[in-house]
Every structure is written in C-alpha cells, then in structure tokens.
Write a structure and sequence with these properties.
By secondary structure, the protein is α+β, with helices and mostly antiparallel strands. The chain folds into three domains: 232 residues, Vaccinia Virus protein VP39 (Rossmann fold); 99 residues, no CATH class; 37 residues, no CATH class. A ten-stranded mixed beta sheet has the order 7-6-5-8-9-10-11-17-19-18. It has a five-stranded antiparallel beta sheet with strand order 12-16-15-14-13, with helices on both faces. The radius of gyration is 21 Å and the shape is globular. The protein starts with a helix and ends in a 9-residue tail after the last strand.
Length: 401
C-alpha cells in the first residue's frame, strides 16, 4: 500500500508539474509530502450545469482505488453544498500550485489563510514554512473547522491552527503575518487584513470584478499609508461568507438564468477577437482572459459562468457570450447586448488590448481621509470597505492585440 501510494503521489505531482504551475523546489517538495486523500472523508460528484450532486464517502486511511484516481486528478472536489451551491471544497491542484508559487513562502514565515477548506493548502504551506513558521487558517463554517482540524491532526499537521470565525476578522494574536492568502472569492478586502499584514509582507486575494465567480488574483502590499496591488492570475473560487459578502451584481444563479432564454442566436466575432483564429488554444485563452479582465473593470457586467466563454450579462436582459470555442458569439435575450459587447471590444482594442501586467491598482479605505481621483485611463470600483482605483499603466497601443 505504501509503495502504491508513493507511486500514485509521484505520478500526481509529475502531472501537475507538466501543466506548468510548479516551478520551485519548495512547492514541489510540499506536494510530494502532503497526501491529499488524508484530508478527505467525503466529496461530491457535482454537476455544475444542473446543480445536482451525489455524495461519495471515503476512508482517509484506506481509500478505494477508484476514489484515489479522482482525488489525485487535477480536479477541484466539492465537499459541502449550501442552498444548492458549493460552500466548501479542495481546490484544483494546478490552481493551488499556482497560488503557492505566487505566495513566495519561505521557512519561518507566519501565514494567515482565509478559507480552510479541507486543510490541504494549509498543510502544503506548513511544509514550506517549516517548524519555525506558523500557519493559521480560518473558516466561518464550524463543521468544516471541526473536520479539518481533526483530519490535519491525524495526518501529522496538528501545529496548524484552525479557527472557526468570520475570515474578515483575521486573527490578531498570531500576527503580524508575512503572508495573507484568501482561498475564496472576495467582493472586497478586509481592513483588518491590512492591519495584520507585516511590514514587507503581502496579501494574495481572489478579488471579484463584475459578476460572481470572476475573481482575478491580486497581490497587495502596503507602502506607508497606501495599499497598492497588481493582477497576477485568474481564479474561479466560490464566494466568501460573512462580513465581506456582498449583494451580487450578477450571481451564479442569475448568470445561469441569463443563458436560459431559449436557443442562442449566433453572431460573428467582433474585433479584435476575430483576429485570434490562427493563434494556439492557450494563447487565445489568455487573450480572452485579458478581455474579461477589462470588462470586469470598465463595464462590470462580465459573465463567464456557467455557460463558459466570456461576454456581458445583465439581469432581465440576458447574455451575450463569446463561446468556449471562440468561433462565434452566442446571444441570449436582448440582441442589443451584442452591439454593447462589440463596442466594449473596440474600446479595449483602442487601449491596446491591455492584459494582467498592464494594470496598477490602489485601494482607498472608505473610513480614511484619502480619496481617489479618476483620471485618464483610470476606473473607480466602489466596494464595501474600499474604493479600488484601476489605472492602465501603458499608453494606448503599447500592448499587442
């Protein structure tokens, strides 16, 4: 059994490495040491299209062969559902690896994680920071905390502190933190996180832009009284609960309703999307994500789930999406949404088709005296506790479409 598990774990890590996100020895070593199945007692075969699921119970000490194939695949596994939607999970391994690399952990660091999940990410972080470091993970769901604490202890990670609390409150007793990471989609950042961040440290937050589920990953740090940031990746985490939760401009349920207005009308791709046909699939996908990011900043009606693709959606009007195949536009409901999507694509093109690296961010606390001023090529995004200023840093035409 031990030899078989070693082979399975090594094959799993090799597969994640082949997909590119694991780059450092520290992250690879952690992935080879932490057994994902030890932190699972059940997962759900979840049908995201129809929001239906079947429970699968496992023994963390002796999981079946078929269960192990699922656990050691590059798949997110839903572990709890609330109101028909996932409320807890163990994230897709490639996304976990990507965010761990972005976190740049080192031995001896103190880390705060918002969203405990199964404890898998916390165990990986503990492996990297070592005995001289400390990992605190917080989850608002008490049953999640009880199970995660128990399974982490049984797997040999009892040093990790698992706390049942609203993540927005952080944990001041274990701070200040060299790193703060959120593993849930956040409509805003908590001012408490900023207060608990150590000098020279940074936060990694999947910060929602536009409709629910579109959560570009933002690296944030302090410079004096300023909180600055930049986009470093993309994610699709479920939404945070508690104080940071916000009324959604367009929820998962509303996005699904927007694409359920009969058969879609097919329309041609707008510029510059129609010029991507000869690009490789991965390059086209990165371009589409860059367009999504612009829509999330400049328009706010960006939609990417559950139908796939990217475009605009609005409650009561329907949706207009560039399809997953990137060969056509699918219009559900109001045909004028197509004209609006075309205009936004043209505006993005005029700005040089900016991508992740072309944006600079600053966050202004609403209860502080400083207020942002909107200038050329800047957008203000009001949030519950902050106002985000997104500034296009490159001159028009500097980026390639």
């Amino acid at each position: 059994m031990q030899k078989r598990m070693r082979e399975l774990l090594d094959s799993y890590v090799d597969d994640v490495k082949a997909r590119a996100p694991i780059k450092s020895e520290a992250v690879e070593r952690a992935f080879r040491r932490v057994e994902r199945h030890r932190l699972l007692e059940r997962f759900l075969n979840y049908d995201h299209e129809n929001w239906e699921y079947d429970e699968v119970w496992i023994d963390p000490t002796e999981p079946g062969t078929e269960h192990l194939k699922t656990i050691y695949s590059d798949s997110a596994l839903v572990t709890r559902v609330s109101g028909g939607l996932p409320s807890s999970s163990t994230s897709q391994p490639t996304l976990v690896a990507q965010m761990l690399e972005l976190l740049e952990l080192a031995p001896g660091q103190r880390v705060l994680e918002i969203g405990a999940g199964t404890g898998y990410n916390a165990a990986l972080m503990q492996e990297i920071v070592g005995d001289a470091g400390h990992v605190t993970t917080i989850d608002i769901q008490e049953d999640v905390v009880a199970q995660t604490r128990r399974l982490l202890r049984a797997a040999g990670y009892g040093r990790i502190e698992v706390i049942a609390r609203d993540g927005a409150l952080g944990e001041p007793e274990n701070g200040p933190y060299d790193r703060i990471i959120a593993t849930v989609g956040c409509p805003d950042i908590s001012p408490t996180w900023v207060d608990q961040l150590a000098e020279g440290g940074f936060m990694l937050v999947p910060l929602q832009h536009g409709a629910e589920g579109f959560n570009p990953v933002v690296r944030m740090w302090k410079e004096g009284e300023r909180v600055l940031g930049r986009f470093v990746g993309f994610s699709g985490f479920m939404s945070i609960q508690g104080e940071l939760a916000a009324e959604q401009m367009l929820s998962f349920a509303e996005q699904k309703q927007a694409t359920a207005r009969g058969r879609a009308e097919e329309r041609p791709l707008p510029r510059p999307v129609d010029s991507w046909r000869d690009m490789g699939r991965h390059e086209r996908w990165l371009k589409l994500l860059a367009l999504e990011l612009f829509l999330g900043i400049a328009d706010g009606r960006v939609c990417w789930a559950p139908a796939g693709g990217c475009g605009l959606a609005e409650q009561g009007r329907g949706a207009c999406l560039i399809g997953k195949d990137m060969e056509k536009v699918e219009v559900y409901g109001d045909p004028l949404l197509y004209d609006e999507l075309v205009e936004e694509c043209m505006r993005w093109e005029r700005l040089g088709c900016p991508g992740l690296e072309d944006w600079g961010l600053e966050f202004y606390m609403r209860d502080a005296g400083r207020r942002p001023e909107q200038g050329q090529n800047t957008w203000l995004i009001p949030r519950k506790f902050t106002i985000e200023l997104a500034r296009l840093q490159k001159a028009n035409g500097d980026s390639s479409c």
